[in-house]
Design a protein that fits this description.
- The chain is α+β, with helices and mostly antiparallel strands.
- The protein has one domain.
- Helices cover 31% and strands 22% of the residues.
- The chain is built from two helices and four strands.
- The chain has a four-stranded mixed beta sheet with strand order 2-3-1-4.
- The protein is globular and about 35 Å long.
- The termini are far apart.
- 18% of the residues are buried.
- The mean pLDDT is 92.
Length: 77
């Protein structure tokens, strides 16, 4: 993905039919860009945990997710 935006993330979630059994992990730069776009779209309001269409969006702090890549993680144990 060229740049991870709010619209691109919504489309990714819908196209892949993701449910709340997964979370999305993003590179810190991509996460920051998405949060800024989300704030612009939602009038500087953000909820915790950060979710789009019920899917939790997390910042990867392990260094395993490349910039502008989306990593889905199974949340059901």
């Amino acid at each position: 993905m060229e740049k991870i935006t709010y619209d691109a993330m919504r489309n990714f979630i819908l196209e892949n039919e993701l449910t709340d059994s997964v979370a999305i992990s993003l590179h810190p730069d991509s996460f920051d860009e998405l949060v800024m776009d989300y704030l612009d779209f939602n009038g500087n309001k953000i909820e915790r945990p950060f979710e789009i269409l019920g899917i939790e969006i997390l910042q990867d702090n392990t260094g395993s997710v490349s910039k502008n890549k989306i990593n889905t993680m199974n949340m059901v144990q």
